[in-house]
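Dear H.,

Thanks for agreeing to be a second pair of eyes. The structure we're designing against is below in token form, covering all 681 positions.
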């Protein structure tokens, strides 16, 4: 078996969140919570580790947002950098540095990196055609171009993607392209750019990933293989834009470094900012291990493009692993910043004060490690109430309460152990190896389950031994039971520190546990007899239905707002003559009875007072109405349709309804009371 490579230090980087909005739960589940768990774990082991983060502050979406708000791009990034940094700290994401790509350190580092590659002849200079707005006198980046999607017909697609059907586009694919600045038809003009020849580095990338890193997660390895098998193409590293890092060579006036080239260099510049004297050992020493935590939309940049940049530069270490996660959805729908369909971290921290660890727990338990997963508020409530409160919190509370009740808060001494005691000890000793194995291989969901297993062991131990019954007859046995229960409690403080740091800190305070070392996990002598525990404090509290309803109601409002905002009326049907219209006999009728049609989920059977002999009409609106809600209502119906049989019921007409923006059918009727049988026209 190949010997595992030894390393002296670990550099952990996290994808730089884009500073045009706050951080949401998708970012957290995909990148920041797993990265923080991993770094806290390494720190508990006493390893040399740095966690590097920062805001990505260049690129077109920021300029568009600034233009809409009538402020400068710097105003936008200043605002959101602070929101992101503060909310990350609020959730306990323990960066060693959280900086930004508008810093002077980053500008110099990115410029020098580009210049080094330029001087080595690593770029290809090419002319290409790009859209230009003549009135605005500005080159148009993809997001500054809108038009009709050639795939679905959406008339508001962007030059890089159609948000209606999700298809990636090139600006030249759009039908009837328009400038988002002036609304004019843009022209194609030639412009010069510098390209990174990724095809040059394809053989080395193929060897490095496909042969040397088969241990990478299947979703990461598979996406890399797909790109490599399709063949890598040269990629522009510059753009015609006025917001970004100026290209530091002659003849490149008015051009900036493309954000995908600029942003990953932020990991290097932020490390230099943190450790100006010895930053190089974290990037260039052979005994350094570099880990990139990212979401799946960044795999190509961190596994192919950034490594190719590092290969071209020549002095940097390549990442050892890139444990990218898939996407987290929200209530069954894709999280979307533009649609406000998200749970924003800064808002969560305001709405759920003191419940940082609940979110960390739920996002880890539902982590989209190999496939997309879903966050729902019901699951959030259930996991809090049924797992954190009922299992972890319950055990800790019982252990502390019983110690205070029977021993006045003094940790009792353990006496002779029974076979059941020894079996329990052996069971929870095994948690350490399972936890370590899961964390070492970036399986954070499995690791969390192992930590919770320890709490389950503790609950079962107290339930089986029943010290509250033995207290009347066998206090030495109670002392042994409670000593062991408190040792399990101390183990929980270690096991949950990477996952639930706020709760672990409260737990340590309750048992007066000063130091936390991973090596102690599994020990039964962490706490010493004669030491004291404090009065119990609830680690978690139940979340009620009303609290959850506030959140689900908010999402429903957002959904309805998006439906109305994006509603586009259908095109008007071809013109008909007035004579054709007069052929329709539209009348008003009163619903005497309404019931569901048997074995037909969509159909309702109406008995209508039509002012004559009455009639039966079958309508496909059962999905939108309860039958009893329609009885007594006046509706409009077409009286002169030929009868037709639906599911064994003869329908003698058609009830008129309108389709709302959300696809809901609404029955049409008169505003005031009208006699049944009156014609409409």
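And this is the sequence the design step returned. I haven't edited it by hand at all.
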């Amino acid at each position: 078996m190949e010997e595992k490579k030894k390393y002296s230090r670990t550099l952990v980087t996290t994808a730089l969140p884009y500073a045009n909005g706050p951080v949401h739960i998708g970012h957290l589940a995909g990148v920041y919570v797993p990265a923080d768990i991993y770094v806290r774990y390494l720190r508990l082991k006493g390893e040399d580790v740095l966690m590097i983060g920062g805001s990505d502050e260049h690129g077109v979406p920021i300029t568009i947002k600034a233009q809409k708000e009538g402020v400068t791009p710097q105003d936008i990034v200043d605002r959101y950098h602070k929101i992101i940094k503060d909310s990350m700290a609020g959730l306990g994401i323990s960066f060693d540095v959280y900086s930004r790509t508008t810093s002077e350190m980053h500008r110099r580092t990115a410029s020098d990196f580009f210049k080094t590659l330029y001087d080595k002849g690593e770029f290809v200079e090419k002319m290409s055609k790009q859209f230009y707005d003549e009135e605005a006198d500005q080159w148009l980046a993809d997001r500054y171009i809108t038009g009709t999607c050639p795939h679905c017909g959406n008339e508001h697609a962007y030059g890089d993607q159609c948000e209606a059907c999700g298809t990636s586009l090139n600006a030249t694919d759009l039908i009837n392209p328009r400038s988002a600045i002036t609304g004019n038809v843009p022209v194609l003009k030639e412009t010069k750019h510098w390209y990174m020849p990724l095809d040059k580095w394809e053989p080395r990338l193929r060897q490095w990933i496909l042969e040397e890193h088969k241990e990478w997660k299947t979703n990461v390895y598979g996406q890399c293989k797909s790109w490599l098998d399709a063949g890598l193409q040269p990629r522009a590293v510059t753009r015609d834009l006025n917001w970004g890092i100026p290209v530091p060579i002659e003849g490149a006036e008015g051009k900036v470094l493309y954000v995908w080239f600029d942003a990953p260099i932020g990991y290097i510049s932020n490390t230099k900012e943190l450790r100006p004297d010895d930053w190089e050992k974290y990037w260039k020493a052979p005994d350094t291990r570099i880990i990139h935590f990212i979401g799946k939309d960044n795999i190509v940049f961190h596994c192919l493009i950034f490594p190719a940049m590092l290969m071209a530069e020549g002095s940097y270490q390549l990442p050892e692993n890139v444990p990218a996660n898939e996407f987290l959805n929200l209530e069954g729908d894709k999280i979307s910043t533009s649609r406000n369909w998200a749970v924003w971290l800064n808002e969560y921290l305001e709405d759920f004060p003191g419940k940082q660890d609940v979110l960390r727990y739920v996002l880890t338990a539902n982590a989209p490690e190999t496939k997309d997963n879903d966050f729902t508020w019901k699951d959030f409530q259930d996991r809090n109430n049924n797992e954190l409160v009922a299992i972890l919190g319950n055990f800790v509370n019982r252990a502390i309460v019983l110690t205070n009740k029977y021993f006045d808060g003094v940790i009792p001494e353990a006496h002779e152990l029974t076979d059941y005691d020894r079996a329990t000890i052996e069971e929870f000793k095994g948690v350490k190896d399972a936890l370590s194995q899961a964390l070492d291989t970036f399986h954070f969901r499995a690791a969390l389950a192992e930590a919770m297993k320890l709490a389950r062991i503790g609950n079962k131990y107290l339930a089986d031994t029943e010290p509250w019954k033995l207290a009347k007859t066998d206090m030495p046995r109670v002392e042994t039971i409670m000593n062991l229960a408190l040792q399990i409690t101390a183990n929980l403080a270690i096991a949950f520190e990477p996952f639930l740091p706020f709760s672990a800190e409260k737990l340590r305070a309750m048992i007066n546990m000063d130091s936390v070392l991973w090596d102690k996990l599994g020990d039964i002598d962490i706490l010493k007899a004669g030491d004291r525990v404090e009065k119990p404090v609830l680690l978690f509290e139940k979340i009620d239905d009303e609290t959850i309803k506030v959140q689900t109601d908010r999402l429903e409002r957002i959904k309805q707002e998006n439906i109305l905002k994006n509603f586009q009326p259908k095109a008007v049907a071809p013109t008909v003559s007035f004579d054709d219209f007069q052929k329709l006999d539209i009348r008003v009728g009163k619903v005497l009875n309404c019931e569901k049609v048997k074995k037909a989920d969509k159909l309702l059977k109406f008995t209508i007072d039509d002012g004559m002999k009455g009639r039966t009409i079958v309508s496909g609106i059962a999905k939108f109405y309860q039958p009893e809600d329609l009885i007594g209502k006046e509706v409009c119906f077409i009286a002169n349709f030929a009868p037709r049989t639906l599911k064994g019921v003869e329908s003698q007409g058609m009830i008129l309804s309108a389709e709302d923006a959300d696809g809901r059918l609404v029955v049409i009727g008169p505003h005031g009371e009208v006699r049944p049988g009156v014609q409409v026209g």
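Two observations from my side: The chain has a mean pLDDT of 93. The CA atoms of residues 450 and 475 lie 32 Å apart.

Warmly,
E.
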